[in-house]
Amino acid sequence: MPLIDTAERVLFLALVRSHGRAGADFRLTGHERQQADPADIYGYAVVDCLASGRQHAYPLDETADWLMAFHKDLLAGSFEIPPAA
């Protein structure tokens, strides 16, 4: 069984597009849990923004809604290119 199912991938792309971004600007991968991770986590949804180079990992467990956390990060501009100093 994949860590991220097809329905979650469809919702992920819908969220990206609803914020005016191209699906090709983002990469979604699932990573298995490591031995040092908390026992209730079975992996991570890792989102890379190819345009900005930013990456966020969202824990996957029975209670966490990683798509909601990703949506909040999109709203907060967490994947945007930082302004030049």
Give a summary of the structure in a few sentences.
By secondary structure, this protein is of the alpha+beta class.
Description:
- This protein is α+β, with helices and mostly antiparallel strands.
- The protein has one domain (6-76).
- Helix content is 28%, strand content 24%.
- It has 2 helices and 3 strands.
- It has helices at 6-18, 66-76; strands at residues 26-32, 43-49, 55-60.
- A hairpin with a 5-residue loop joins strand 2 (43-49) and strand 3 (55-60).
- The mean pLDDT is 90.
Number of domains: 1
Beta strand count: 3
Residue runs with pLDDT of under 50 for 5 or more positions: none
Indicate the structural class: alpha+beta
Strand order of the largest sheet: 1-2-3
Strand fraction band? 15-25%
Helicity level: 25-40%
- The overall pLDDT average reads 90
> What is the helix/strand order?
HEEEH
Q: Which term fits the overall shape?
A: globular
Question: For the CA atoms, what is the radius of gyration?
Answer: 13 Å
Largest sheet: 3 strands, antiparallel
Our measurement of the CA-to-CA distance between the termini, rounded to an integer number of angstroms, reads 45 Å
Summed up, the helix count is 2
Output the keywords:
alpha+beta, three-stranded antiparallel beta sheet, 2 helices
What's the SSE blueprint?
Layout (H helix, E strand, L loop, with lengths): L5 H13 L7 E7 L10 E7 L5 E6 L5 H11 L9
Antiparallel strand pairs: 1-2, 2-3
Helix pairs in contact: 1-2
